[in-house]
Write the structure tokens for this entry.
Amino acid sequence: MERSSYASRSSGELNAAAASGGGRPVRVIPLRQPTEAAARGSASSSSPWWRAAVGRARGMGPLEWAEAALPCVAWMRRYRWKEDLQADLAAGITVGVMLVPQAMSYAKLAGLHPIYGLYTGFVPLFVYAIFGSSRQLAVGPVALVSLLVSNVLGGIVNSSSELYTELAILLAFMVGILECLMGLLRLGWLIRFISHSVISGFTTASAIVIGLSQIKYFLGYSVTRSSKIIPLIDSIISGIDQFSWPPFVMGSTFLAILLIMKNLGKSNKRLRFLRASGPLTAVVVGTIFVKIFRPSAISVVGEIPQGLPKFSIPRGFEHLMSLMPTAVLITGVAILESVGIAKALAAKNGYELDSNKELFGLGIANICGSFFSAYPATGSFSRSAVNHESGAKTGLSGIIMGIIIGSALLFMTPLFTDIPQCALAAIVISAVTGLVDYEEAIFLWGIDKKDFFLWAITFMTTLIFGIEIGVLVGVGFSLAFVIHESANPHIAVLGRLPGTTVYRNTLQYPEAYTYNGIVVVRIDAPIYFANISYIKDRLREYELNLPNSNRGPDVGRVYFVILEMSPVTYIDSSAVQALKDLHQEYKARHIQIAIANPNRQVHLLLSRSGIIDLIGAGWCFVRVHDAVQVCLQHVQSSSPSAKKLTPQASEDLTDSIPTSKTEQQQQRRYGFLKNLWKAQDGNRESSGEVQPLLRQNLV
């Protein structure tokens, strides 16, 4: 028997044949073909960001230029002295009081003298208030960055040497340069490839390492400096014979007080001042206790130099390359911590925030801070939350924090001499307890095992192999999942929902029905070199393993493949060539490709590459339903075994868009004849007879 070819005529040819006696033509919505004018319009609408930025810059006035260069101008112009000043003063004083002991604690965590924590909380605050775009973000030293500084510098030089301090300051300069470059080049989007589960696993492991590294001040003996949990635990166990009760009791007491005050401040709005005053309480009570009783077993901070930091140029540039990986890592942490919380606070307070401007502001703050003996600073989750809860309205609250730190440097450093080390350690431990996100792991286990795996692998590798390895492994797996999802996109076989012209995934809607000889496939991703082979394999699989079709004439195999391309946002040259090859393969097997609902960019590229001409303009449709109807009409007119259709198939085929007014009048005129015919032949389907094609209105 001679095989019929369905990959021969377009819908236009079919209509012509139908008009000459082969049946009534199927009315379809014409797909507008792309023109050169559309191509030029498309090119202009998708111009690069820098060209759009130049266009915006030309229309900016002096005030807009001032706001672009100095974001502080935006809130200074609209500052309401009566409403905002009181709130900014209260927030600035609250967070400033919290920052003084925290800054010294984090400097100790970084392996630096406590004074460098105060320096880090001084100049960067003023600079960020001018160049930063967030009005509630509290900038300064943070625990995670301090741990990273300690981890990398401890492997290069001894923490007691002057070079250690110089390299920490150089790190601030390098981080500032990287942040400025990423902001200017608009590269903040790169961090989007790091999964939230990776970040959560990394911060949870880092919090545990930070807590264990500070426990030496509770135990009363030295513990190995490491970012790996096994050496830390081994060092703690091996030195247990040197355990001292006084620092343990004092440190545990301070930790309990801090946690109680922190939880009370979170749970009760009236007591929220307790959350901010907790660190100061621990420092004051501990200092008074040491001054009165002078316990020999309690180690204290010691002498702290008085006065503001002096201007100096960072040194140690010969170690630049060895510090670069850590500088990149700290920059990533800054983007994740600072930009993330800054955007959240901006949304809560009703203003827009540009992440690239925010990066640039953080970079300028770090660069300027490095000239005044500061190590890398970034936004703090805890202090920013307190700043927001205290009612901060503008960047003036950050300036007030800086004034408090400056006052402490000028007048209060002699009082810091007798601060117990265990009190500062308790402040660090209480601060990082909020980073232990075990609830996220439980949530991910119940929702998505893949994300839980990312969380677990990042958590375990960070604990066992260190921060750098943990981050690399977590990011590597995160990117691997992204690449896998991109290279293996979701592809769905579509069926028609009963009583509609809507086509949906047959797995999601089992009641949706398909047609014999026609496969409707939706590709839910851009088509490019990495996934085109997978897409071709899946299409071949659908051809060999026929879906369970229950409508239309039984033709025994697939003759039409309709590609629903509305989710396809992009197609590259490799995919174009693969589609040409696929068309040739299908043509050799008498299979016709049809394209439904491509967007303008994809349609334009397919037209330019010759795909539309190769397939035939008549095989490009606005709707999947139009494509299905044309294919069914081909089946009826071409297949010897389908000269007549079942009643249900004929109804499906003729369920088209509204016809012309004349045809609609004719339909109404002869409607009663149709009803009469259906009534007389009501049992025809069950008896095996068929009915002719009848046009119906659009469902």
Observations:
- The two ends are 39 Å apart (CA to CA).
- The longest strand covers residues 491-496.
- The chain has a mean pLDDT of 82.
- The chain has 31 helices and eight strands.
